[in-house]
Amino acid sequence: MSNAIAPPDYSAVMSRILNRPDPYCPWSDLRRRHGIDLRWHSADDNMGFDFAPQAVTAFDQLAISISVGLSQVVMRLSLAHELVHLDRGPVTSDRTDAEENKVDRMAVQRLVDPVIYDALSLGGRQIPPHERVRLLQASAECLRIYEGWRAGVSFKTALSRYEQYGPHRWPEWPAPWIATKSQEWPMAARFAQAAPRHVARSLSASGRTIDA
Ligand SMILES: [Zn+2]
């Protein structure tokens, strides 16, 4: 009789996660979004909020600022979150909380491969947390948000949201909302000719221009 713990059987998991397509990369997405200004702020800088944000989008400057010192997987979620903000544009202050939840969900849908997620979940008791993080490139917060969303949707829905974007399929850029700000913001004016004409309408003048 032995007290040794049996090694995990990864064979079933491996058969599912091999040959998956390359994932959506927020850094590649950022690189091809011309006109975005990437900045960095210190970890204790609250950037005007009542907490120190991991990342902030200043819509009127088309700028993203990321806190230094974040881990790779935390930064990956933070950047993806801000890029979703740039896709959707500013919202009024009364919609901020709902918008943050929506943006969080949209970000994790782009980041977490449902095939790998489900494969690791099926063998969850055998897969150490650090291996789940490595294989999914997802922080604990990312997985928490994703888990909550996946509980209410089918695998088919999760797969379609994930495969919506990838190394060769990107969100529309410049985002249509930017053209609506070309009269107010110098940065947005640069995109006035590039954006579709049918969306060139005014947003609420009371919209927030900065969001964490
Ligand atoms: Zn946000």
Please describe the topology of this protein.
Blueprint: H1 11-17, H2 26-32, E1 37-41, E2 55-58, E3 63-67, H3 72-88, H4 96-111, H5 114-122, H6 129-136, H7 140-150, H8 155-162, H9 176-179, H10 186-189, E4 210-211
Helix pairs in contact: 1-5, 2-3, 3-4, 4-7
This protein binds zinc ion (ZN).
Folded structure, characterized:
Helices cover 43% and strands 8% of the residues. By secondary structure, the protein is of the alpha+beta class. It has one domain (15-211). A four-stranded mixed beta sheet has the order 1-3-2-4, covered by helices on one side. Helix 2 crosses helix 3 and helix 3 (72-88) packs across helix 4. The chain starts with 10 loop residues before the first helix and ends with a strand. The model is unreliable at 197-209 (pLDDT under 50). Zinc ion binds at residues 81, 85, 100, 103, 211-212.
Please describe the structure with a list of short key phrases separated by commas or semicolons.
single chain, 212 residues, alpha+beta, four-stranded mixed β-sheet, 10 helices, 43% helix, elongated, binds zinc ion
